[in-house]
Every structure is written in structure tokens, then in C-alpha cells.
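C-alpha cells help. One example:
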Amino acid sequence: MSTAIGQEGNNKQQTVAVIGAGIIGINCALELQSLGYQVTLLDKEGIGSGCSKGNAGHFATEQVFPLAEFSLLWQMPKLLLDPLGPVALSAKHFIKAIPWFIQFFNNMRPTLRDKNKKALQALNKNAISHYTALLKAAEAEHLISLNGSLLVFESNDRTKVEVMYLHYLTAGIAVKLLDRTQTLELEPNLSGNINYSLYFTDVAHTIDPLALSKTLAEFAMCKGMTFQQTAVTAVTQSQTGVTVLTDQQCLHVDHCVIACGAWSKELLKGLNYQLPIEAERGYSLSLPISATANSPLSRPVASAERRFIITPMENTLRLAGTVEYAGLNTPANYKRAEMLKENAAFILKTLPDSEEKQEKWMGCRPSLPDSLPVICQAPNHDKIFFALGHQHLGLTQGAITGKLIGQLVSGQTTEINVEPFCISRFN
């Protein structure tokens, strides 16, 4: 193993604590361990046990448009009032969420929205190629399927579909507009309700998000990384390095990467950084597929009107989506997972019918009001780095984030400009 010299310029192997064992933290730990650092990965739960377990499994590189857009203002009342709708806002949480929504609305301004879009385009551009290289090295290429995805429309208004098609095309996204016949040729099990689709040819999906996380973590462990299941309560920096206080010990390291998603706010507050992060809760419902049955789909299919996605996985069909603003600790409302199946009945001709082993899941997406993650060296702490707030794109941006963190920690020039992702934009 090579010795990580890092920015200090000495010959002692540098140590790094990575806090958060979701897909972002795992990728950061793997990259740093590969660069020769001695990495300790820390998490209060198991590896990949949060959003990295129950997500849609979609490497959504086509999603380069920030969520804050003016058209959403007129849609919100309808979305919130629809019992099967994709958005819910807890009355109890509303007051707490007001400052976040003010910043969210501010990011609808065309100049900010365009700036944020360009940053997302840069981050997503090579996101999948970084994964394919990692999975090839880990001998786990079977976990990723490069089969594209569909965005389907029940609407028969071709003009609106063409507007969206051109929207993606002008953003540099590889996309084809398909009519009903062409769509059904790709996915015969789609319902007759479907009139058009956008076929994103360059995106991918994984057959098992949890297996992906665990495989990359095991690959990092083979290189020497260690994992500790422990809760981190504070992080401080001194002249000699970083102290990570856990519920079991004080860990002294040369560098620290904070990558604990929606749970990052308190750790950053202890370092005097403001982080306007919202726990945007998403739900999924996994339907088991009989060993003797064929998968109902061969690629992810998202519904433009119903705003959810169906992904074929190993032995399951996963229905995922919805947005719920209710905070980190409110009990899950699994009716929101169950309604995904009701919506799926409008998209597919047939669904797996076994109800015995259906798995309901809820996870907290770490969402920031500008739809950009925080990927940076802490402005006032040169030994601490942030990799958090990837909202709906944590899985998609995991490998590229790990690469960028490796470059930041080791003092290399980053392969893309990371200035738009600095936490200074909130401080």
C-alpha cells in the first residue's frame, strides 16, 4: 500500500475518519483508502442501512434541473391536497420548515437556477463512469445495469411532452421521444394508459442498492479500511489533527470527512457552520417477484404525472418516490408506501401479486434548498471535509463525490470545479 502524504508533506501514513456509512461515506472511504490513507468509517447503524438501502436504485444522471422552479408554486396546492399525491407536509413540522422553504423559493430565481443547473450537469456528467470503474475493480459489475430508463406520460398532449423533451435535449441529456407503440416495444408490460415516453439512453440502475453499498465497503476493507458501529457526538480540530468524540471513545485522526446526510446538521453546528438541510422523507415498497416469473420491467420507469418510479431489482420490483416534510424523528406513515402500489396499477398491466413479503421502507433524504450537495474543505477547518446533502441523487453522485473528496484531502486539483458546492454559500 502506498503512503498517503497529504498536505502535511511528511512520510507518516495519514489517518482519516469518515462519519457516515451510506453510499456517500462508503465511496469517500474507499477512495481515500485507495489513495493510501488509513481510513476508519463510523456510523451509528450498519453499513448502507439508511437511504442507501431502500432507494429507487436509479443512477439518475438526467436529473440536472434543480427542484426549485416557478411552476412548482402553482402545482403545490394540488399536490398537497391529493391523497395519492407525491408531496406531503406535516402541519407540526411546517413552522420549523419555513426558513428552508424561503431559501428554496429564492433559488427559483432564473440566475440562481441556471447556475445550480450547470453545477449539477458537471457533477452528473461522469458519475456513472466512475461507478463502472469501481465495480469492475471490485469484480461486481453485475450490480449495475446500463439499460437506460423511461419517463412515461399518461397525457395525450404531445406538445407538452415535446417541450419537456427539448428541455432535456438542450441540457445535453441523451434522450429520445417515443410514442405509445415504440414505448411498448421496449416495455411490453406497460399499461395502455401510456401515450408517450422519454427514453434516457445513458442512465443506469442497480439490481440491489444495499448489496452495492456493502460490496464497495467490503472492497475498501480488503484495502485496509476499518468500520466501527458507533454514534459520533462531536468533532473538533486542533493544531495536531481532528478529534472525533463517539459514544465509545475519542478518536484522534489527521483528517475527518463528515458524510452523514440529514444527520449532519448538529455536527456542523458544533463547528459553527450553518447547514439549512431538510430531512425530505421518501418511501419505497418492494414487491417480491416469484423465482419462476419474469421481471415486469427491464429498466426503471418513472411516471411524469404521478411522480414516482418503478425499478426492476433482483427478485423484487421496487416502487419508490413521494416527498414528505415531517422532520427526522416523526414515525413513518407507511400509507405513503402503500399508495405507490395504487399508482403503479395505472402504469403497469400486471404487478407481482404476493403480499406476504412486501417490504415497506422510509428514509430521510438530505435536501438543501438549492438542490446542490456540500462537497468541500471546511472553510475554517483545513483538516475537516464535508460530503453531504445530495438530496435525491446520493446514489447517483456517490462515486464522483468520493473521487472529489479524495482529491481535496490529498491536495490535488479536483476534476471539476467544486466552488459551487462549498458550504460558504450558506455561511
